[in-house]
Design goal:
Blueprint: H1 2-19, H2 32-51, H3 63-82, H4 93-106, H5 114-133, H6 141-161, H7 189-196, E1 200-205, E2 213-218, E3 220-221, E4 226-227, E5 241-242, E6 266-268, E7 275-278, E8 280-286, E9 295-296, E10 301-307, E11 317-319, E12 324-326, E13 336-342, H8 349-354, H9 370-380, H10 386-400, E14 402-403, H11 419-427, E15 432-433, H12 435-448, E16 453-459, E17 474-476, E18 479-485, E19 489-497, E20 501-505, H13 548-561, H14 566-580, H15 582-606, H16 611-628, H17 640-650, H18 655-670, H19 677-695, H20 700-707, H21 715-726, H22 728-756
Parallel strand pairs: 14-15
Antiparallel strand pairs: 1-8, 1-18, 2-16, 3-4, 5-11, 6-7, 8-13, 9-12, 10-13, 11-12, 16-19, 17-18, 19-20
Helix pairs in contact: 1-3, 2-3, 3-4, 5-6, 9-12, 10-12, 16-18, 16-19, 17-18, 18-19, 21-22
């Protein structure tokens, strides 16, 4: 019990004090609410380890699980190492190997230097186990070294030769983020321009010039909208997992400074195609326009995101397939985070034209008009490489299209990017739209040509023509600062090419290329019969947001309806207690069953209907009780008179009463007069007095052990027999002690006999 109490102290007090910031050993550490909270944090830590995108970091989200495994592994291994039971010399290695297996299950397929860790484990455990089990011979050090070397070589060699198919839980665990019902991020693109054209919606520190910032990546098209999920065949649906920290969170409020981390990946300027920097650490500050939105702006391929201030990184989900992140609870104005990122290179046009399209299988697009495929074939059908096809599509759309957001004072241009909107744009005398339509059209045209494509929504530093520009970046106190406004919102296309990965293309025409009033570019309103399916969109899909007062009222109603009842809380606490004290409950249940079994046997013997048999059974119960408690070593194959004599010698306190009980049982069995039920009741009453007097000489621990052990067993004798079988040395000591005890009893009997005569 002392060990269990100490482990609970380490689990719920010392561990949280080391793991969670600000946790100290206060008096409320073992309050029910505190224990429940820390238990939930422990379970959340295991979920975080198998759902977060590596590296998971060393913060309060991942360390509780590590602390728990290390703590209980140390207890099990040390307990096994301190035990002196023969034949269990290998037992201390079992908890260590089990912890290794659990760590592998919670880790990744590649692991972390798995071969070196396995070799280190062999190098430590094998000699220690040999020394503990007595297998090591001091004079055979050369042979021992040879065995150790062969074991290391065989282990490392087998790891190299065997195929790597490590089973990890993260590959079979689906994170709880449901993306299927998410509104298309592309549908609300014009809202930024309409409501925040000149407002600063995002500020980036230490972001290389002319670098696009990605927000949402959409891979599924259902005929109406592009979205991040909902693909018909589920091949294009990205998986969003909790983002690993890679570094501890910080509460610093300084948002204007960040350090630059070097890497081997080279970033290129979108305008010149020349190197402009290496991997870097970029700090983003959210402005008014992005407040309440969920898609987190990031650049390049992040290897860690550090949330500053009071932002909760547990609400940050990341997709490694699309390099996009989402903050489902909504970003707040002034929210700051730092992204350690590797900026991907943007190749030159000559390199793109020579690149072959990747053979990646993407989700098929539904409800695509045939005109789009025919137009794509007419534009890029003569090209020989996938890169050349993509350049041809982007160049044609950029040169042949006209630009308009369709806002007040601009040329009419319907919002939306579904099949109906794109077909109507192609049916006019000229194409008019913005990045929403041109990106959707190019992505569908690329897919019709067999190129893997996806649509990206983000912000780019634009110049006066709406093109990527390096002049937007300013140098302030030695840091590159770029401010993005609502007018910088843009949609572009990424196409996967061999050797280059996902390459961005910007098919939107210059924003200064707008139709004048004399041009009639309005598309016809007749719907083409060549559209394979999908109803038209009378109004584009937009993300509807509740007014603040309605949102607060809904939150209050939800929180009030979800308040758990008192008995729900009691059941949760009871479940935690049962789970934590599982071994204690098992021992208690076993003891209770033994107690019931002993009481049942005594009750059955007491209720035998034949008085003489009832009295004989009572005598047997007394003998078994004395043998069970090790008060008297009474043979079972002796007569009652002989057994009484042995009990009198070994238990002088009940000598007279035992003789009376033995004579009464013999008289009931062999006398001519039949014993009555009254005699049996009186006999059992006297028998209970003898049992109580005999048990009074036992220690409390011995008494409880006798009560909670089945009667046919003899606890001390059983333990001695086991020890004799397992340890010869212990057997010899026990035999010697028994012999000394026998000699002492013979001498006492001889002295008593001499005194009588």
């Amino acid at each position: 019990m002392a060990t269990l109490a100490f482990m609970m102290l380490c689990q719920f007090l010392i561990g949280p004090a080391l793991v969670f910031p600000g946790v100290t050993g206060d008096t409320a550490a073992f309050a029910v609410g505190t224990i429940t909270q820390r238990w939930n944090q422990l379970l959340a830590s295991y979920k975080y380890l198998i759902s977060a995108t590596p590296p998971v970091g060393t913060d309060a989200m991942s360390l509780p699980a590590v602390w728990t495994m290390a703590l209980w592994c140390a207890l099990a291994a040390s307990s096994a190492a301190l035990s002196h039971i023969a034949g269990f010399g290998v037992a201390p290695a079992i908890p260590i190997l089990v912890t290794f297996a659990l760590s592998a299950l919670l880790g990744t397929k590649d692991g972390w230097h798995a071969g070196l860790l396995g070799a280190a484990a062999i190098a430590v455990l094998l000699p220690w186990t040999a020394a503990r089990c007595g297998w090591r011979r001091p004079r055979r050090w050369l042979a021992s070294l040879l065995v150790l070397t062969l074991a290391l070589g065989a282990g490392l060699g087998s790891c190299r030769l065997m195929p790597h198919h490590r089973f990890v839980l993260r590959d079979h665990y689906e994170p709880p983020l449901i993306m299927r019902d998410t509104t298309s991020p592309l549908a609300g693109m014009r809202t930024f321009v309409k409501e925040h054209r000149n407002d600063t919606i995002l500020t980036a520190y230490d972001l290389p010039a002319a670098t696009p910032v990605r927000m949402a990546v959409m891979t599924c098209f259902d005929g109406n909208v592009w979205n991040v999920a909902g693909c018909a065949d589920e091949r294009g649906t990205a998986t969003y997992r909790v983002m690993g920290s890679g570094a501890s969170d910080t509460t610093k409020s300084d948002t204007t400074k960040s350090s630059t981390a070097k890497s081997d990946t080279t970033a290129y300027s979108a305008e010149t195609g020349t190197a402009s920097g290496n991997g870097t650490t970029v700090t983003f500050a959210i402005g008014k326009g992005l407040s309440g939105h969920s898609w987190l702006p990031i650049a390049g391929t992040p290897n860690g995101i550090t949330m500053q201030g009071h932002a909760d990184r547990r609400n940050l989900f990341y997709s490694a397939e699309t390099n996009a992140a989402i903050y489902p609870t909504g970003m707040e104005e002034g929210m700051v985070y730092t992204v350690g990122t590797m900026l991907r290179p943007i190749p030159k046009n000559t390199d793109i034209a020579a690149a072959v399209g990747a053979k990646t299988t993407v989700s098929s697009a539904d409800s695509v008009p045939r005109e789009i495929g025919a137009l794509a074939s007419g534009i890029a059908g003569g090209q020989t490489t996938g890169g050349a096809m993509a350049l041809a599509l982007s160049t044609w759309l950029h040169s042949e299209g006209w630009f308009s957001h369709g806002l007040q004072g601009e040329h009419p241009s319907m919002a939306g990017h579904g099949s109906h909107r794109l077909l109507s744009m192609l049916q006019g005398s000229g194409m008019v739209g913005d990045g929403e339509q041109y990106a959707s059209l190019m992505a569908l045209m690329a897919r019709e040509l067999g190129l893997p494509s996806r649509v990206v929504l983000g912000v780019i530093p634009k110049d006066g023509n709406g093109m990527l520009s390096s002049t937007r970046a300013k140098q302030i106190d030695g840091h590159t600062v770029t401010e993005f406004t609502g007018n910088d919102i843009e949609a572009w296309v990424e196409i996967e090419l061999e050797r280059f990965g996902w390459v961005p293309f910007f098919p939107t025409p210059k924003e200064t290329k707008t139709p004048d009033e004399s041009q009639d570019l309005t598309p016809t309103s007749v719907e083409s019969p060549l559209v394979r399916s999908s109803p038209s969109l009378a109004d584009p899909l937009r993300e509807e947001r509740d007014p603040p007062d309605q949102a607060q009222q809904r939150e209050r109603n939800t929180s009030a309806s979800e308040k758990p009842r008192a008995w729900h809380a009691f059941l949760r606490i009871a479940g935690v207690v049962v789970l934590c004290l599982g071994p204690v409950w098992l021992v208690g249940i076993a003891a209770g069953l033994a107690l019931l079994y002993n009481a049942f046997r005594v009750r059955r013997a007491r209720r035998i209907p034949v008085p003489r048999l009832c009295m004989a059974a009572g005598w047997r119960m007394l003998v078994e009780h004395l043998r069970h408690t090790d008060l008297a070593d009474v043979p079972l194959n002796r007569t009652r008179r002989m057994q009484a004599s042995i009990i009198e010698r070994q238990c002088p306190a009940i000598a007279g009463m035992v003789r009376q009980l033995a004579d009464a049982a013999d008289a009931a069995a062999f006398a001519d007069a039949q014993a009555t039920a009254t005699d049996a009741v009186a006999y059992w009453r006297q028998l209970d007095q003898v049992r109580s007097a005999a048990s009074a000489s036992l220690t409390p621990a011995h008494r409880w052990l006798a009560l909670t052990t089945p009667l046919p067993l003899r606890p001390q004798r059983f333990a001695r027999s086991v020890a004799q079988r397992l340890r010869p040395a212990a057997q010899s000591r026990i035999v010697q002690a028994q012999r000394r005890g026998s000699r002492t009893r013979r001498q006492a009997n001889a002295t008593e006999h001499t005194n009588k005569h």
